[in-house]
Inverse folding.
């Protein structure tokens, strides 16, 4: 218990220093991290190989899927992508110190609402070691301390990545304790009790896991739960293009939360769309589980779906298919079985697209696009700490803005409240100001 508490306390005090780092210093640190990750790629891959060997033994015993192994693997191309991601985060505007609201309360009494770091962010993530540098980079850029707990399957990979990031960031001037690594499963329960030091928890995993976190901590939780994603093929869809979009959404990388799980197909296009779709899925070994109408149409090549298939996140080469009578039924199905992650409509009808996009209650809703676009990097956020399916503070792919909050700065000239309460001569102006806190700050620094 003491070890985790000590780490959290050290991260807390480091977060105060992290909040004051200049933009140039954070950028230099991130560029140095990117260079070091590439330089140390062979050592990182050796550590990753140890994890893969252990996991492949479990795969042979049928305890884990091929998709899980794929998520764990850190080959040279994956490391190259991680390095580019870190560089992209370095190039983003600093989210800290931005003026959100400025008002003159009275002459010589000015109020500024300014973006600021959250403090200490605890992130519990799945067995994807490339998530660790993503999360660390975003926390560094946003001026937060971070406590990291990855999946035990990736322990060697996580440790290797953590050691590189910690060493290089300290050399670049970051506070010593800004980044902490937890490795034991029992440390999660201990972390959840440390609300005096930890300001936000971001769990990445199943709905049940996120609910467990929410029910067992006083710390605010930014829930990144499972992604049950849908594509609805409307009666006005371009069939050929719909086939290619649905194929990409399923097979481009099936082991991730934004891969499609269920296809909903309008009954008027089912006969023209589904046989072509099945042929393409067969090329990639995708198992199709369909409703009774789908099975009647496609025959023995399709398994009859069970109730559990609606709302399942497969993370594998499996997809559920349901024929629906109209767009209303499709929307009702998505809102009833989905996880509010990412859903898409394929149609040439703008009115249908608007109805679907406005009535589907998900963090990301697409028109004529693969669900795989739901990603912080592809959204231009540099990277993401996760995809929030909630509706408080941050929603969807969560990047730098989701790791900041704000604080108020009031600059006065020795005013007192009683002069406004007890006198009719004084009143608030509440006049919006065009100048920013950055301008005020720069002026103070020039005059010191």
């Amino acid at each position: 218990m003491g070890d985790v508490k000590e780490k959290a306390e050290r991260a807390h005090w480091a977060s105060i220093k992290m909040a004051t780092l200049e933009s140039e210093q954070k950028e230099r640190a991130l560029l140095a991290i990117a260079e070091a990750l590439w330089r140390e790629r062979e050592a990182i891959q050796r550590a990753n190989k140890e994890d893969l060997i252990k996991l492949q033994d479990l795969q042979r015993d049928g305890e884990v899927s091929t998709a899980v192994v794929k998520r764990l693997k850190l080959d040279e191309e994956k490391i190259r992508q991680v390095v580019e991601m870190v560089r992209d985060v370095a190039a983003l505007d600093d989210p800290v110190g931005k003026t959100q609201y400025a008002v003159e309360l009275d002459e010589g009494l000015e109020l500024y609402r300014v973006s600021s770091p959250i403090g200490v962010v605890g992130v519990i993530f799945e067995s994807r070691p490339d998530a660790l540098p993503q999360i660390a980079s975003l926390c560094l850029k946003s001026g937060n301390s971070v406590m990291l707990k990855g999946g035990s399957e990736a322990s060697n990979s996580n440790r290797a990545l953590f050691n590189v990031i910690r060493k290089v960031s300290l050399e670049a001037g970051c506070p010593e304790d800004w980044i902490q690594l937890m490795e034991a499963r029992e440390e999660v329960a201990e972390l959840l009790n440390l609300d005096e030091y930890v300001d936000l928890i971001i769990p990445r995993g199943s709905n049940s896991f996120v609910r467990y976190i929410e029910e067992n901590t006083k710390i605010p939780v930014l829930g990144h739960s499972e992604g049950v994603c849908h594509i609805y093929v409307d009666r006005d869809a371009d069939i050929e293009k719909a086939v290619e979009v649905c194929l990409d959404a399923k097979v481009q990388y099936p082991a991730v939360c934004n891969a499609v799980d269920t296809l909903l197909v309008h009954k008027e296009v089912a006969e023209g769309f589904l046989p072509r779709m099945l042929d393409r899925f067969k090329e990639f070994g995708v198992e199709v589980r369909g409703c009774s109408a789908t099975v009647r149409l496609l025959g023995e090549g399709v398994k009859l779906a069970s109730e559990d298939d609606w709302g399942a996140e497969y993370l594998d080469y499996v997809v559920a298919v349901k024929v629906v009578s109209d767009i209303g039924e499709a929307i009702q199905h998505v809102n009833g079985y989905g996880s509010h992650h990412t859903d898409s409509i394929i149609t040439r009808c703008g009115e249908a697209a608007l109805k679907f996009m406005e009535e589907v209650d998900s963090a990301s809703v697409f028109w004529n696009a693969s669900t795989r676009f739901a990603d912080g990097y592809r959204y231009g956020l540099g990277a993401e700490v996760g995809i929030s399916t909630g509706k408080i503070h941050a929603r969807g792919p969560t990047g730098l803005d989701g790791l900041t909050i704000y604080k108020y700065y009031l600059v006065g000239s020795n005013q007192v409240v009683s002069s406004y309460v007890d006198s009719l001569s004084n009143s608030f102006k509440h006049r919006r100001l065009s100048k920013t806190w950055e301008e005020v700050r720069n002026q103070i620094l020039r005059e010191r």
